[in-house]
Write a structure and sequence with these properties.
The protein is an alpha/beta fold. Helix content is 29%, strand content 20%. The chain has 7 helices and 8 strands, in the order E-H-E-H-E-H-E-H-E-E-H-E-H-E-H. It has an 8-stranded parallel β-sheet. Helix 5 links the parallel strand 6 and strand 7. The structure holds D-xylitol-5-phosphate and zinc ion. The site of zinc ion (ZN) has 6 residues, from strand 2. Its cofactor is a divalent metal cation; Co(2+); Zn(2+); Mn(2+).
Length: 217
């Protein structure tokens, strides 16, 4: 399915009202819900873990796309499977055994994603493409919403060529807005994560605002 999908990141939602925030973005046409898990170690910020993700699951009717910015990953894979993640993405930089990690994610019944920091080349996933359902290209250094977009057009083009006919999504994460999103779609991306551009104004769920912003992207 190469249709462009929008995956709002609830990192920019009201943390005291996730249920309402998730309903609002899905009512307004979100294709997936992107959940940013941070451990204060792999990235310099801390969000939530498996019990919170399990609580989100009760509200997500579309696809729950869980982006792990944690190290290590392997000890937590089963917990995220039980929490109800549909897609579980691990960073290639988070440990020495990404190949094993992707096998374990699929083994636990989820789709497996691999994320690349801005400094990591496309070629790093060459031997992983048959083990992965999604390559997440970070267009910011992970850890925070609302950062400035770092252009990764050449990396996305190269990945699209490497992927060929395989059913592998290319997801872009960071700094997506109505200007940057079309550049990434043209380069070959099909899933666009957007935090601050969707949850404009932050803390209050305002469906008419989400809707306008999702459609703009
Ligand atoms: C960054 C997260 C992103 C973040 C994107 O570490 O992985 O998903 O929420 O936020 P924006 O769209 O504001 O750059
Ligand atoms: Zn993310």
């Amino acid at each position: 399915d190469r249709r462009i999908k929008i995956a709002p990141s609830i990192l920019s939602a009201d943390f005291a009202d996730f249920g309402r925030e998730i309903r609002a973005i899905e009512d307004q046409g979100a294709d997936w819900v992107h959940v940013d898990v941070m451990d204060g170690h792999f990235v310099p910020n801390l969000t939530f873990g498996p019990p919170a993700v399990a609580a989100f699951r009760k509200h997500v009717k579309t696809v729950m796309d869980v982006h792990l910015m944690i190290a290590p990953v392997d000890p937590y894979i089963d917990a995220y499977a039980k929490a109800g993640a549909d897609i579980l993405t691990a960073h290639i930089e988070a440990g020495p055994h990404i190949h094993r990690t992707l096998q374990a994610i699929r083994g636990a019944g989820m789709k497996a994603g691999v994320a690349l920091n801005p400094g990591t080349p496309a070629d790093a996933v060459e031997h992983l493409l048959d083990l992965t359902d999604l390559v997440c290209v970070m267009t910011v250094n992970p850890g925070f919403g609302g950062q400035k977009y770092i252009d990764m057009t050449a990396k996305v083009r190269r990945l699209r060529a490497m992927i060929g006919d395989r059913p592998v999504h290319i997801e872009i994460d960071g700094g997506m807005d109505p200007t940057t999103a079309p550049l990434m779609a043209a380069a070959g991306a099909d899933v666009l994560v957007a935090g601050s551009a969707v949850f404009k104004g932050g803390s209050v769920a305002a469906p008419e605002v989400y809707g306008a912003n999702i459609r703009a992207i």
